[in-house]
Write a structure and sequence with these properties.
Blueprint (H helix, E strand, L loop, with lengths): L4 E2 L9 H8 L14 H21 L21 H4 L5 E5 L27 H5 L1 H4 L16 E8 L1 H21 L5 E5 L1 H4 L10 H21 L3 E5 L2 H4 L10 H18 L8 E5 L14 H10 L4 E4 L12 H4 L7 E7 L9 H15 L5 E4 L9 H21 L1
Parallel strand pairs: 1-9, 4-5, 5-6, 6-7, 7-8, 8-9
Antiparallel strand pairs: 2-3
Helix pairs in contact: 1-2, 2-6, 6-8, 8-10, 10-11, 13-14
Pfam family, one: Meth_synt_2
Protein name: Cobalamin-independent methionine synthase II family protein
Length: 403
């Protein structure tokens, strides 16, 4: 029997104790979180140990720290995967101008530019629904993010925080009997989506973020862990370009972000790298998502061993057929989402098994790891999140027995 391994996309529900401890750390006027106290470090260390132990109990094969080192002060949070980096980078400042308050930006053929968040095409098409609190659409709290007002670089505080993340996860893995796990880290392309008030050109700002993120990737890999590069920008940027560009223009625009990931990973062994692609984790219609077939070639250009992507939600589940037409390079592994953050309905294990088997029959069961579409923490109720992971493991066992 071929065992189908299981993992997830990163974020897991924070414990009430950790949320309370995070909330007690008051963010300063500069938008930064103060240095953690010894008491806070103890709470965080225990929370990571507990969440890894819970993953072991459920049967997750490849765990992480639940992204607990990424500050989250409430049970509902869609942006911690991104905003955590602001405490780790020098050159950022709260200016009052960000992608929620700035004026819309228009693109033209051959000149692709990101517009502001409220000008996303899905948000404007369904404007009434997005503004209706009874519609079921949730995008999380819209906070003010810093802008780059000087040269950006990975800070001394960032090096201490990533060292804390790796130490906490390594100790928790050892205590629970795991050989290794993964830590998610922001991509250069996603980092460069904040407002640039210093570099002046999109390409120069993107290049700067390559230098920012490389030290974090290298620190994670040096601890013997898998680096997961979180990069919704590869797919999600499509919705943030107005009017809709040609696929050719978008691919050219996005290839620079793919090359940025590869440059930032230059000193990280491919065997220790996985890449997470998604179309944005907010609960909305997603009618303007780009099709996977248009960007799967870009995905496979990324120098990673493992490719994580959404495949369980109703907007993208049908795209499993893309892999019938695309040859997965030798030595690569796909990590499709087979349970989704986008619904409160807990997937039946039989459905999970069927989703896994579709991929396994195309690329081979040894080249499939079953996962979640996106992070579950902060997006659905904790009880539902853990039930989904239990269903994920149960479905993988069914698929394993049949494959």
């Amino acid at each position: 029997m071929t065992e189908i391994l299981t993992t997830h996309a990163g974020s897991l529900p924070r414990s009430p104790e950790l949320i309370a401890a995070n909330s007690a750390r008051q963010v300063g006027e500069d938008g930064l979180t103060p240095e953690p106290t010894d008491e806070f470090r103890g709470v965080l260390r225990q929370a990571v140990a507990d969440v890894v132990a819970k993953q072991r109990e459920i049967g997750i094969s490849i765990p992480n720290d639940g992204e607990y080192g990424h500050l989250m002060t409430s049970a509902v949070n869609y942006g911690a995967w991104w905003s955590y980096i602001f405490d780790r980078v020098d050159g950022l400042e709260l200016t009052g101008e960000d992608h929620f308050s700035s004026e819309p930006v228009r693109s033209s053929p051959g000149d692709v530019r990101l517009t502001v968040f409220p000008d996303r095409r899905d948000w404007t098409i369904f404007q009434r629904a997005y503004q209706d609190p009874t519609s079921g659409i949730t995008v999380g709290a819209q906070t003010t993010f810093p802008a780059a007002t000087g040269p950006v670089s990975y800070s001394a505080a960032g090096r201490e925080l990533v060292a804390q993340d790796t130490a906490n996860l390594r100790a928790a893995l050892d205590a629970s009997g795991y050989a290794t796990g993964f830590l998610p880290s922001l991509s250069p392309g996603s980092g460069s989506r904040i407002v640039d008030a210093h570099y002046g050109t999109v390409d120069a700002f993107l290049d700067a973020w390559v230098e920012v993120m490389a030290p974090e990737y290298e620190a994670i890999a040096a601890a013997g862990l898998i680096v997961q590069v979180d990069d919704p920008s590869i797919a999600e940027n499509w919705d943030q370009i107005n009017p809709e560009p040609s696929v050719e223009d978008y691919v050219a625009f996005t290839r620079k972000r793919v090359e940025a990931v590869n440059r930032a990973l230059a000193n990280v062994p491919t065997e220790q790298t996985r890449f997470h692609l998604c179309w944005g984790s907010w609960h909305g219609p997603h009618t303007t998502d780009i099709e996977l077939r248009h960007i799967v070639g870009l995905l496979l250009e990324i120098d990673a061993k493992y490719y994580s992507f959404e495949a369980g939600n109703v907007r993208h589940e049908h795209e499993w057929t893309v892999w019938q037409d695309v040859e997965l390079p030798e030595g690569k592994v796909i990590v499709p989402g087979v349970v989704s953050h986008a619904t409160n309905v807990v997937e039946h294990p039989e459905l999970v098994a069927q989703r896994i088997e579709r991929f396994a029959r195309i690329v081979g069961p040894e080249r499939v790891i079953a996962s979640t579409d996106c992070g579950l923490g902060g997006r659905i109720h904790p009880d539902i999140a853990w039930a989904k992971l239990e269903s994920l493991v149960a479905g993988a066992r069914i698929a394993s027995s049949r494959l």
